[in-house]
Amino acid sequence: MNVKLKGLVQEIEPLLVQYRRNFHKYPEAGWTEFRTAAKITEILLELGYSVKLGADAVSKSDMLGVPPEEELKIHMNRAVKQGANPELVKEMEGGLTGIIAELNCGEGPTVALRFDMDANDIDEPKEEKHRPFREGFSSENPGVMHACGHDGHAAIGLGVARMIVKIKDLLQGKIRLIFQPGEEGVRGAKAMVARGAADGVDYILGAHIGFQATKNRQLICGTGHFLATSKLDVSFTGIPAHAGAAPEEGHNALLAAACAALNLHAISRHGKGSTRITVGTLNAGQARNVIPPHAEMKIETRGETTEINEYMVNSVRDIIAGAAKMYGVDYEIKIVGETISGESSPELITKVKDIAQGTGLFTELIDYVSFGASEDFTAFMTTVQKNGGQGTYMMIGSQLASGHHDYYFDFDEATLACSVELLLEIVVNLIGKCQEDRIINIT
Asked: Which residue positions form the known binding site for Mn(2+)?
C-alpha cells in the first residue's frame, strides 16, 4: 500500500462527496447529460487534460435511442438554468454528451478508465427515510433519478482525474478517461467506440458500485458472461373502422401486436447458450368502438453470445413480419439500444487482485463472477481486446439502501474514496516508474 497516495485521496474525500451529491441533485437520462458533461468538462480542462467533446467524442450516426430534437433542446435549456456553461452545452447539441479526456505522461502504454454518467427514468421519493431527501440532495428533475450509482461513478472519475495530475511525474504512459452517456439501455458506448474512444488502448478498466458486491470493503476483480442484448421499438399501423357498422373495413394493429407478443415468447431456445426475450410494454387502440389502427411494443432480446443474440433478433424480425402480414398491417422496427457479449481478461483480473491485496482496502477479494446481464462497457472492452489489449470490469462493494433501479437506491459514500484509491493504485502499477521514485516524489 502506498501510504502517501492514500493520504492524498483522503484529503479530497469531502470533494468526492460534494461531486456525487451535485450530480445526484441534477440527474439527466441518456443523451441529455448536458449539465453533467459540461461540469465534468470544465474541471478536466482546468486540470490540464486534452478533452474531446461533442462530435469529436460521439459518432452521431451510431447513436441509439436518442430523444427527439425538441426534447433535447428542453434539456439543454434546463442544463444552462442549472449552472452549465452555455458554450459547452451548445457544443453537445443533438445529445453528443460523451467526453474523452487524455493526459500524456510520457512514452508508454495507454490506460483507459470508463465512467458512466446517466440517470434512470424514475421519480425520487420525497420521504425522510430516504437519505438524499433527508440531507437535501435528492433529484430536482422530475421523473429522473440516479438509482444505479452513476453519480458516484462520475465523481470517482473526477477524483481519479485530480489525483493523476498530482502524480503524473511518476507515470510513464497515457491516461484516457471516458465519460459515457446512455449506458442505461446500452445506447452510448457504440457511438463512442466508433469515434475512437477505445483505439490505441492497452488496458481498459470499468467498475460499478454494488451489484453483486453488496458489502463494504469487498471487491470483485473481474466479471464475465455479459449477455449481448438488443432493444427494439416496434410499431404496427393498421386501418381504423367502425367496430359495429363496418369492422371488416379495418385492419387491427392491436391483434397483430398481441399475436406477435405471444409468439415472441415462444421463440425456440438456443442449444449453444442462454437466451432472453421480453415484451416490456404493449400499447394499442384508441376507443372501444374503433378497430385499433395503432400499436406499439418495446422489446428486448439477450443472448449468452453476440451470435446467439443475433439469432434472437432475427427471430423477432420474422415474427413481427408474420404477424403484420396476417392482419394486413404495416410495421416498423427500430433498434434503440444494443451491445455485445464480453469477458474480462484473466491476466488483468489476476493483476487487479494482486494490486488490491496490497492496498489493504479490502477484507474480501473475489476473483470473478458471472454477470448474467448486459453492460455497455463490453463494447469498449471487446474492442481493446481485439486490438491486443486487456480489460476487466470490477464491482466495488458498498452497503446499499435498496437494490439498483429502486426508488430508494443509495450507497455508502465511503466507497468513493476507496474506489479512487484502488484505481490510482492500478494505474500506478500499470504505468508507474520505479517504486523508489513513487515514494520520494509524491507530495
From this structure: 148, 150, 184, 208, 405
